[in-house]
Model the fold of this input.
Amino acid sequence: MAADELGEFERIARFFAPLAGPGGLGLLDDAALVECRAGRQLVVTADAIVAGVHYLPDDPPELVARKLLRVNLSDLAAMGARPLHYVLTTAFPAEINPEWLGRFAEGLGEDQRRFRIDLLGGDSVGTVGPAVLSLTAIGEVTAGKAVRRSGAKPGDLVWVSGTIGDAYLGLRLLRGEYSELSPEHRAYLVRRFQIPDPRTQLGPLLRGIAHAMIDVSDGLLADLAHVCETSQAAAIVELDLVPLSPAAEVIVERDPAMRPRLATGGDDYELLFAAPADAAERIVALSSRLGVPIARIGRIEPGAGVRLADAYGRTIVVEQAGYRHF
Amino acid sequence: MAADELGEFERIARFFAPLAGPGGLGLLDDAALVECRAGRQLVVTADAIVAGVHYLPDDPPELVARKLLRVNLSDLAAMGARPLHYVLTTAFPAEINPEWLGRFAEGLGEDQRRFRIDLLGGDSVGTVGPAVLSLTAIGEVTAGKAVRRSGAKPGDLVWVSGTIGDAYLGLRLLRGEYSELSPEHRAYLVRRFQIPDPRTQLGPLLRGIAHAMIDVSDGLLADLAHVCETSQAAAIVELDLVPLSPAAEVIVERDPAMRPRLATGGDDYELLFAAPADAAERIVALSSRLGVPIARIGRIEPGAGVRLADAYGRTIVVEQAGYRHF
Done:
């Protein structure tokens, strides 16, 4: 954690040291300490975001912070891990103002409390380009019990939490579309784009139930393809079973061609998993206990690739299998 | 580890997946796994570097990679930790070429073998600005035995490994100075700037000996000031005891005013520590066993701040207490 710029120490002391947990040693040391609990493995993931690519310079700084944190928590949830800590490195241009930083740190603080995690440390440097923020999140899981992408088996049912396509619609809305939508639906979709709700409770409870799991970031079909590839299996998804929010339903009702597009949108940060058919009852019970909708959308088959089908099993061809940022 | 750009998957598979250790799961999952060993703590540190600030775009990519890795290993060593793994996020401009990336990955691979560490995972995104590379390193230490910055006590002796000021001189040399120096001395100083030798063996062996430790990145005096501040103590350093390399001695002989400047240079990545006086014999034995020079340069006193003194105890005023990059 070298100091590279005048002002770095002050910036760290003012904005980031208050976020440090006990293992962060007040951000005053060369490194941070993380406890090892017997019978556990730590789970580590990282994401970087760039101003103008993954967020817009005039996005609320609190939301930028919380989204950066939450996309990582979603990755931990997809492994069945409970989140513990995070490490943050920031490269900001010289013109970043303290108010922006203060609000950014506030966003981190708010979500630290919500998800019971703390800051371990990091680094803060300057750049002449757009800001680049990199966050490494650390969670824990019972040793040997992490849920991988690679365990899906033919016969497994495919499930997804929450609703799909909202973030994609939220982005289109921010670009000026869907002005005819009700204010409530508009606000809902924009929020789903701006700040995901990582399934940090559900993920760990799916250990021992899910054979394979991933979080939906590239798009439902693309992420299911990742599961199929690493599991060496195929999947079929029944389009009508893909869960949509009331706001998305309004849009799809007016423009039915949007329905398959939503299955290729991204940034849903829902959990997509394969589980044996006899686990269905437990999954439904879990859904009801947590108040988190979990929908069965398809099944794993022998072979390779992901096929989208209608209720009669006929293949639906999708224009765009993937997702790109602004 | 979300995918944000076309080509990210190929880039990861080609350059980075071969660097992944068992816990990295082939970089094919949402997160990586780290074993928890009973009676250990993990030690975590992070550094970010920016093209044009911390390295120059035409620096050899292998050296950029190895320096990024090594500055983090130096932080782990300063805590007395043994290095295990690292996580890497990269933000590269579109014009980065595969040859550069290949050589960058080669540099990582070479140092992975040397330091017996492996890649856990990370993220790769695009930027329109200069490249920003962020590395989080994970090591381990016997629980409760990490060496902090805060444990220095009046009466402790202050020690430093290796030689001081070489990297600072190497940077000046790259800027066109010291052309009169012998080719051997020139090559030595440039190398000391371009690629540090983190004291990964020495650091863990100083657990139980050093009361406080830090690695010299901001400059000997500035880093000792960090130790004093967190330890709530003062330090006196005797300038003539600060160890210089033969190359640096040549420069100081011609320009004696350079001697105090070297104590404020940076990027030495040597270990600076305070230890009780009765540990001196063990430290000398350790130095001789490892073949790593360790010099006694001063002592900890009650009070605050760092004072540089001549052999008669007279204070030497230093122009610049700190270090800035290009």
User: Anything to note?
Assistant: Chain A touches chain B through 76 residues (CB under 8 Å). The domain at 8-142 of chain A is CATH 3.30.1330.10 (60s Ribosomal Protein L30; Chain: A;). Confidence is low (pLDDT under 50) at residues 1-6, 321-326 of chain A. Chain A has two domains: 8-142, 157-309.
